[in-house]
Amino acid sequence: MALIKSVRGFTPKIGQDCFLAENCTIIGDVEMGSGCSIWFGTVLRGDVNSIRIGNGTNIQDGAVIHTLYQRSTTTIGDNVSIGHNVTIHGAEIQDNALIGMGSVVLDHAVVGKGAIVAAGSVVTGKTVVGDGELWAGVPAKFIKKVDPAQSAEMNQRIARDYHMYASWYSQDEDGKE
User: What's the CA gap between 138 and 148, in Å, rounded?
Assistant: First the structure.
């Protein structure tokens, strides 16, 4: 069972139909919408400030989401995919964005709607990644605008796939719910 822990008078609020892996950790001032999946080894640490997550978002294995005490919050929109081993610290990730595996997004950065941060990138503090843009590198730099239809298809497909993967964990050994 996931570790869900209250701290400083804040208890995490979890929407309906969410998958929480047995060893994920959700602490403090965290609120998530419905249909989310929080995968193995992930930590959502709302001990020093708030973390807000929309509907249908997947936060994959080993990700860490945190904030700065009294100086930053983390907001993640609807149908966002946060890749394996990503760190998001006090940033805003808008709807339908994709944060690639191993990336870091730092305080007061904003990743726009339908944007893509390539695997292994570091989005430095206060950087603004525009809607539908692809950024990559260390530090991350603008690469190109992504075709909105392609971005929407890919990002929404990944979000749907993770919702499907999460459903597998509610089935018994015969594949029945």
Answer: 25
Q: Which positions ≥6 away from 131 have C-beta within 8 Å?
A: 94, 112, 113, 114, 115
Q: What are phi and psi of 128, to 5 degrees?
A: -115, 115
User: Residue 24 in contact with residue 2, Cβ under 8 Å?
Assistant: yes
Looking at the chain, how many residues does it have? 177
* Helical H segments across the chain, by residue range: 148-168
Query: Cβ neighbours of residue 142 under 8 Å, at least 6 residues apart?
Result: 129, 130, 133, 134, 135
Tokens representing residue 118 in the block: 């390539």
Cα(30)–Cα(8) distance, integer angstroms: 12
pTM comes to 0.95
- pLDDT tens-digit profile, the chain (177 residues): 899 999 999 999 999 999 999 999 999 999 999 999 999 999 999 999 999 999 999 999 999 999 999 999 999 999 999 999 999 999 999 999 999 999 999 999 999 999 999 999 999 999 999 999 999 999 999 999 998 888 888 888 998 899 999 999 986 555 555
